[in-house]
Design a protein that fits this description.
2 copies of one chain form a homodimer. Chain A is of the alpha/beta class. Chain A has 13 helices and 18 strands. The first copy, chain A, folds into 2 domains: about 170 residues, Carbamate kinase, CATH 3.40.1160.10; about 140 residues, VC0802-like. In chain A, the strands form 4 sheets. Chain A has an 8-stranded mixed sheet with strand order 3-6-2-1-9-11-12-10, with helices on both faces. A 6-stranded antiparallel sheet of chain A has the order 14-15-13-16-18-17. In chain A, strand 14 and strand 15 form a beta hairpin.
């Protein structure tokens, strides 16, 4: 008898027929004797439809964010009602709950609210009475009774937060993939589904482009030590369990390979190597709303240094314009850039105790004559920047070199 | 400086363009210096869309009505958000309110809840601070925090109840007609818009087929003496003011002519004239869900009597089947019926003190050789049942005979 929080995303509840299949998954667990709390997103393209209605008005000034939350929270409300009706019809005592009815209290940052507290008393009581609670993801209520929404990946966050508050045995995120793979199966055909992965690895993979789970939900799960499972809502496989590192767990050296195309790099050469130089360069970039990914600064010579960072390709020309101005102000020698690069990253907790990973990686790439333009490492990750045309080849080469296939 | 509650129905807010026009109406009053509270329905066919989603599941058992309310209340939530955004963009300090946020407390009769209380403190405070509240019609909350909906005509009821609770100067219902007319302008071209009409007259007209306002909203307005105005959301006319009868008001003899086609009458002849006979006949009819309109029983002869009632034409054959069974049980002489009848009703408070109305009506119809099959009267109404083919002719004849034209 375990307690599972099961979360189903938009593609899993895109129609009444889809919702029927979701009900199958839920009923399976109930029939095995488990307690289940369900969290759902808005149906398929429903949120897009609501957003486009608001875009017809196109107002972003004072008060807009509050009203947008009133609008956007509607999508999940429809799904909880329909799923509850389906479960009721099948003879299960389901009951829908809005964010406020679960008592998901948030701050007042509309469109990107943070959960402050969850009062699980009501849900606990319902569970004791055999009720199957169906909870609207993505939404909460601030202390003045306003509807709030949690921003991107909000329903995942709701599920994890609920699982943490209820002390659930697992938070199960159902999506349109079979789990977390050693790399993208569209690039490497024999990529392998991982049985387990640590939160740290998952965080590195999520932020590097394996967009299965939102970073925020993983952080939340990690912080509250909620075992997180990612599985397919269209299949019966067990998916991947994301959990904290156990001592007994024989960690593989490398868990997976993440990659990201559509990147661009910019370099400012020969700037004075003094304190504050990094923020003088990156300040104007981030103020303009451009997100910076990798940042590299190598050793300096002659009191001057070179400074490189990467951005999304779409932001390349704007970033270049800003950087050129900054270069003039700082009296730098030169500005250069390349908008045809890609990033490949190897992730694994086993890497910590295994110094040979980096050299093995570089050697494998060299064998295929793939030149490495930049290198950056963290505790459990090595990233390299290469010419974009070698991206698929690099991923396949590394996948084979580290025996990640099935 | 008056306070107006302005309510806009589904056709008035069918698109963002429509909502822009609704904003014009609201702003006009604000600019004149009035305080305004807005109540809106769901956009156009939105409620139909939601209902059809639930019909795909088709579950009506235990718990269904609660979940349906969760689903159906979504429509109004979308509208309040969009209208608030439009008003904000135009520089007005609008703010949306769900039923529960206004504190519209209802009983727990899902799908047809009754308003128990409205706590106007919050809205009053907002009005004092110059806020323009935009309230979701049709919805409330029961004492356990469940969403409830008010059933048919629910948004009108919300508007009237709010106007009563706030002590508003007028509750203005905007719809797709110019106001209340002496009769249907599609039948009588020169039908005249009424400046004023009493609640009693309006109730008779509403229940007789002038489907502009829901009976329940009129009853509510009448009970709490809220002046009610019906006007067009697509035009600038003043509409019709529905108000309680004032002594100073020179009441016209006849205010309007209502009519209803698609009716059928059923008669059971020669039943024993004893106490309980009416319920013995009508009980089985109403138990089967058929709504009965007129009921007539004339004097009896030889200890037996004849009993006639009318139903909607769609229910005719089912009603006839039931009545035939009842007839056998009661040992009645005969059952007869006619499914090609129509009802024409003249309504007016002036009628009370003017005995000549009935004879003038009958005379006008006789002149056109229209035979009267049944007659039924109330304090302020005379209804006749005639052959359906004469319906338009009868309405036009009476409209002219009583000088109702423009």
């Amino acid at each position: 008898m375990a307690l599972y929080v099961k979360k189903f995303g938009g593609t899993s509840v895109a129609s009444v027929a889809h919702i029927q299949r979701v009900a199958d998954k839920i009923i399976e667990d109930k029939e095995t004797g488990h307690d289940v709390v369900v969290v759902v997103s808005a149906m398929g393209k429903e949120t897009d439809r609501l957003v486009s209605l608001s875009e017809e008005i196109d107002y972003r000034g004072n008060g807009a964010s509050r009203e947008l939350d009133v609008l956007l929270s509607v999508g999940e409300q429809v799904t909880i009602s329909l799923l509850s009706l389906v479960l009721l019809k099948r003879g299960y005592q389901a009951e829908s709950f809005l964010g406020r009815q679960v008592k998901i209290s948030t701050d007042s940052s509309h469109n990107k609210a943070r959960i402050v507290d969850i009062d699980t008393k009501e849900i606990q009581k319902k569970l004791e009475n055999g009720v199957l609670p169906v909870v609207a993801g993505f939404q909460g209520e601030d202390e003045r009774g306003n509807i709030t929404t949690l921003g991107r990946g909000g329903s995942d966050t709701t599920a994890v937060a609920l699982a943490a508050a209820l002390g659930a045995d697992e938070c199960q995120i159902y999506t349109d993939v079979q789990g977390i793979f050693t790399t993208d199966p569209r690039v490497v055909e024999n990529a392998r589904r991982l049985e387990r992965i640590t939160f740290e690895e998952m965080l590195e993979l999520a932020s590097l482009g394996s967009r299965v789970l939102h970073t925020r939900a993983i952080e939340f799960a990690s912080k509250y030590r909620v075992p997180l499972r990612v599985a397919s809502s269209f299949d019966t496989g067990p998916g991947t369990l994301i959990t904290y590192e156990e001592k007994s767990m024989e960690a593989p050296i490398i868990s997976g390979i993440a990659f990201e195309g559509d990147e661009a790099k910019l370099t400012i050469l020969g700037v004075e190597d003094v304190p504050g130089i990094a923020s003088a360069i990156l300040g104007p970039i981030s103020e303009s709303g451009i997100e910076v990914d990798m940042i590299l600064q190598n050793i300096s010579a002659d009191m001057s240094t070179d400074f490189t960072f990467t951005v999304n390709r779409d932001d390349y020309s704007q970033a270049m314009e800003i950087l050129t101005k900054v270069s003039d102000q700082l009296g730098a020698r030169e500005v250069s850039g390349d908008n045809r690069i890609a990033k490949v990253s190897m992730v694994g907790v086993g890497m910590r105790s295994h110094a040979g990973v980096a050299s093995k990686m570089f050697e494998a790439l060299a064998k295929e004559s793939i030149n490495i333009q930049m290198i950056s490492t963290s505790e459990i990750k090595i990233s390299v920047v290469i010419d974009e045309k070698y991206l698929e080849l690099a991923v396949r080469t590394l996948h084979a070199a580290f025996d990640l296939e099935e």
